[in-house]
Amino acid sequence: MIKHNLKNYITLKKPALRGLFCFKNLTLSFSLILFSSTVTASSVEYNNFKNDNVMVDGIEFRFMSYDYIVHLNSRDKNYGKTVFVGFKTQEISELSDYVIVKFLKGCHYESDGRSKWISRVRGNFGDIIPYKYQSLSIDSEDLDPSFKSSDLGRHYFYLWNDQGEFSNDSFYFGDKEPKNSFLFLRHSPGTAFDNGMTSQNISMKYKSCLFKASEVPYGRVQASKLLPNALYCFDWNYSREYDQKSHSFIKRERLNPFCLE
What we know:
About 0% of the residues lie in helices and about 50% in strands. The chain has about 260 residues and is an all-beta fold.
């Protein structure tokens, strides 16, 4: 049985922000690695917050996302998105009985306003492929379909903290035994930007799904065969495409046709 509790926020309530952000007197500064060079951001803007959770057979499945804009200077910006997905079991001992699998479709493409091409690559089941998924696929760099799996362990890079909530201030499951039964993953799938000659664009759709670990075998598997076994999926998209007329990045609900060719 699934009980759905949907909340969409322009800004999140303060309790949900503990250890994550501080919006008052925001003075964030950090480094981004772009084309093997370090660029320091002058400020970061957060918006379009979404928060959702469901109960699935006694397991709480949570989702949170936000968009961000990195202001490199008065003109240059990088556009990105961060997603948190996690689950809470009845007992700590049950945490390893569940995994998160991420499905994706779409592409990251570069454009000069006249033509489009793929310039980014990524890991896919042990291979390196162009960042283009014409059909729904599983997002996994190694031969374990579960998201962010590792040779150190299927759950090694899952995160937890004392508060039992989404936060950047967390421990790895593989480094320290959790004190509560909430694990989560954090994901930021790249940034879109314009460098004055070409633009890096993102047109993607995702499904972040909760599975019983026993339903996710190791090895290559088609998304269409694995997806029906999901307990629940959160659907989300990430679209930032440069518009030549307005000279700005816009969001589109549909995938760019180029990603499906």
